[in-house]
Specification:
3 helices
């Protein structure tokens, strides 16, 4: 092994192979958002209980979108 081989860095992983502190959380959020979108696409119900449930899911959807955006910004700043 020559001196040059010892000084080189290992190759960087491709974008889709990178694991960060937020990878598992983003995966869970993606799954939740899929479910929330499916529920929110349905027509607005008339039953008060279902309306309340839909509003709750709408709030959860908006919250998870905010969290996802913040995590994506944090991960993007890791690789500047």
């Amino acid at each position: 092994m020559s001196q040059q081989d010892c000084l080189t860095l290992p190759p960087l992983k491709q974008w889709h192979e990178r694991k960060t502190f937020a990878s598992s959380t983003l995966k869970q959020i993606k799954s939740r958002l899929q479910y929330y979108r499916k529920i929110l696409k349905e027509p607005i119900p008339t039953d008060p209980k279902k309306i309340a449930k839909r509003n709750k899911i709408q709030r959860k959807y908006e919250y998870n979108m905010k969290v996802r955006n913040l995590l994506n910004k944090a991960v993007n700043n890791l690789y500047l």
